[in-house]
Design goal:
Order of helices and strands: EHEHEEHEEHHHEH
Shape: globular
Enzyme class: transferase
Main location: cytoplasm
EC number: 2.7.4.3
Mean pLDDT: 96
Number of strands: 7
Catalytic activity: ATP + H2O = ADP + phosphate + H(+); AMP + ATP = 2 ADP
Largest sheet: 5 strands, parallel
Helix content: 40-55%
Number of helices: 7
Oligomer: single chain
CATH superfamily of one domain: P-loop containing nucleotide triphosphate hydrolases
Distance between the termini: 10 Å
Family: Belongs to the adenylate kinase family. AK6 subfamily.
Radius of gyration: 16 Å
Low-confidence stretches: none
Length: 173
């Protein structure tokens, strides 16, 4: 009998630290880490190009089809800056990472974001856009916000998620 393992969504505005946390969590729990941006790039799951943001448009249906079997099996950490494209049944818990906007601004500038792309992402954080999207897409009791400003926050979040994962596995096997 396969050990049942949870599916976790890490979401939040670009620059909040999803990837660092996700990779570290996968390394320490043995869950599978999937970065949707990388997956889309590797499989070319795109549906056109967004001139305004200078980036390809994600083909959401193909992404969902590609991952569905893996998600049904469980034990997956998904990292993406959106959340309403995924089926609700996929996730056992959803973490929305939050970063102070002045700090986010600096992180995004360091990544080469400029102009409208930079402004819109910082505004997205100010208006809690992703948090509200998550609260609408999933049942409220599985959605949690995590502060992600300092290396201490990262460490605390990591420990909390490891603990949650271990507890979930105990409770469901």
């Amino acid at each position: 009998m396969m050990t049942k393992r949870p599916n976790i969504l890490l979401t939040g505005t670009p620059g909040v630290g999803k990837t660092t946390l996700g990779k570290e969590l996968a390394a320490q729990t043995g869950l599978t880490y999937v970065n949707i941006g990388e997956l889309a790039h590797e499989g070319q799951y795109y549906d056109g190009y967004d001139e305004e943001y200078q980036c390809p448009v994600l083909d959401e249906d193909r992404v969902v089809d590609e991952l569905d079997q893996k998600m049904v099996e469980g034990g997956v950490i998904i990292d993406y800056h959106g959340c309403d494209l995924f089926p609700e049944r996929w996730f056992h818990i959803v973490f929305v990472l939050r970063t102070d906007n002045t700090q986010l601004y600096t992180r995004l500038e360091d990544r080469g974001y400029t102009g409208k792309k930079l402004q819109d992402n910082v505004q997205c954080e100010i208006f809690q856009t992703i948090y509200e999207e998550a609260m609408e897409a999933y049942s409220e009791e599985i959605v949690h916000q995590l502060p992600s400003n300092t290396p201490e926050d990262l460490e605390k979040n990591l420990q909390q998620l490891i603990q949650w994962t271990e507890q979930w596995i105990k409770d469901h096997n």
